[in-house]
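Here is an idea for our session: we take a single protein and study its fold together. To get us started, please write out a protein record for me. Start from the sequence, derive the backbone structure tokens from it, and show both lines together. Go ahead whenever you are ready, and we will take it from there:
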Amino acid sequence: MIVRIGVMVGVLLVWPGAVRAGQSRADLWTAQRDAKSREARPVPATGLEDFLLRAAAGRWPTRLLNPRSGLFLRVGLPGEGAGLGLGPAWRHSPFNRRYTATASFAASASKNWSGQLAFDVPDLLPVAGSDRVGLHLSAARHQRARDPFWGIGPEADQRSVFALAQRDVNGEVIVRISPALHVGLAGGVLSSHTTSQPGLLDGRITHVRVGASLSFDQRNTLPATRTGRHLDPEALDGASTGRFLRVDWSRFSDTGTGAFSFDRTSVDLQQYLPFLHGHRVLALRALAVLTSVDGDAAVPFYLMPTLGGSRVGRAYPTFRFRDRHLLAAQVEYRYVVNPFMHGAVFVDAAQVAPRLGDVTWARVRWSTGVGLRLGVRGGAAFRVDLGFGRDGVRLATGFGHAF
């Protein structure tokens, strides 16, 4: 009994000091952490990283490649596999952005070139509401010197080359129903001239084109860049969340014999699933491009949907397969390497066919691979993909994301 009483008295005498000592140690640790946080300094950026950070902060790429007004450098050519085109461009747009007029020209080492005049009015009918109706007009001339032609069909394998010259005059009225929902009505004239050796692909065709489109775009980035409910939203460098749907229909009427009149419908559905605060993104896409003809009419081979290149079927050469219909599914796992570089692991599954009933699992062309994208905010100013497919390994390059 005496021992128990002695233990209890000892505990009562020692406990307050232990508490005070524990509190003193906690206070000491807190003070040490506060001192370290006050002394901490960010590691200064040096060399290339410092240059890229200053370029991004000063918007140098935008000023050089996409300014509001003045001279700038045009980079890229329209169409798959056109090569790296460079050339001068000029743009004028007043501060109130009532209109934008652009003239540009670009050429590549492969002798492909393109010249274009464009005129845009973002607010065509102010009485209908701010930015509700927009207008786009363009006139362009394109020249492709040596495009590959492997034949038509999912098993074509007779490689040759052809040259394609086109004049394209186009106009489109865009109605912005909501920030996400846009409807477009378009019309124009497309004149095409093909030549080849030994002349099997020679021809001239002029099409009058009319069309309609519907676009539902809820894509955004993390952190969000589309911060307001604008009817004319900013273009995204690279989406990391949301969904996108675009449906296009066009009627190409052959003004000559009518033998090459056809309809083309495309459906493009995309979904972006972010995790780890947007540093990882699972990007999904389903694409269908379908054509139809009246009677014995045909679709010109150079206007058929194609499989192969830097966007669909990245393990295959540009225009490797072409036919009247294309079905494709694509998956990309995108991850941040650093603020200026992103990596990707991708799988493409696609097939062309003369009729939808001819689509079979055995003819699906698979492309798997890895890639790097250079650009800020998840964008891909320049893209490199290494694809693996049935025909071997292929390196594909391009501007912008594959989708």
Remarks:
- The chain has three helices and 18 strands.
- Confidence is low (pLDDT under 50) at residues 11-16.
